[in-house]
Amino acid sequence: MDEAVALGKGLLLGEKPAVVVTPNAEIAYEAMRDPAFRDLLNRADLILPDGAGVVLGAKILKTPLKQKVAGIDWAANMLRVFAETGTPLFLLGSKPGIGELAAEQMKLRAPGLIVCGIRDGYFKDEADVVEQINDSGAKALFVCLGAPKQEHFMFNHQAELTSVRVMAGLGGSLDGFAGTVKRAPGWMIKLNLEWLYRLIKEPKRFGRMLRLPKFIFAALRQRLKG
Ligand code: UDP
Description:
Layout: H1 2-11, E1 18-21, H2 25-33, H3 35-42, E2 46-47, H4 52-60, H5 71-85, E3 89-93, H6 98-109, E4 115-119, H7 126-136, E5 140-144, H8 149-157, E6 166-169, H9 173-178, H10 186-190, H11 194-201, H12 206-209, H13 211-225
Parallel strand pairs: 1-2, 1-6, 3-4, 3-5, 5-6
The protein binds uridine-5'-diphosphate.
């Protein structure tokens, strides 16, 4: 996490808008099967392992990762960096009203944080959204539209974003900051059972979550082949 935050801080000093992606096992499984999406993820400047499944897959493949870095935890740490460095943040995504609630909570966590713009994730005109972000002077941008929508948005508009220096695709994180979607209790996170908590809370995710065992199975198959 410390390394990931230091890297994120470094990206703020770059000349072009850097892209941060946060694949979990579901997203990594999609990327395995969809070469175009995989290329997109691989073009990112920073790729964070947003789940215990990705960490396990990497271990199986003998390319171990140090630890899980949940996108929302990285984002929470970056809020303090933004506050310390006077970096204005734009929040894009989730349902109307959620961004405002998230901004309030974020300012409590990181006193001095400047949230320079908010837009919900249910828009038709992408050009209008890009214009709003540019007009806001945002240097940091959280894109919370779910995968793969957020990754497409970031790469499609990377060249048009004039002030942004770092943007991150963070799925349902604004709901998390707003408190409208609760995170698993600490003991479940420690036991690597955050996925199970989400499944219990949102059983409709079952179909999607089958990608997690499929991802682990694919990693095992790869290891046995190699
Ligand atoms: N969302 C959005 N626009 C859309 C579809 C989804 O802003 O067109 C938001 C949705 O409200 C939720 C987030 O994107 O806040 C997706 O959350 P999810 O937990 O499904 O993310 P994932 O697990 O796919 O990263």
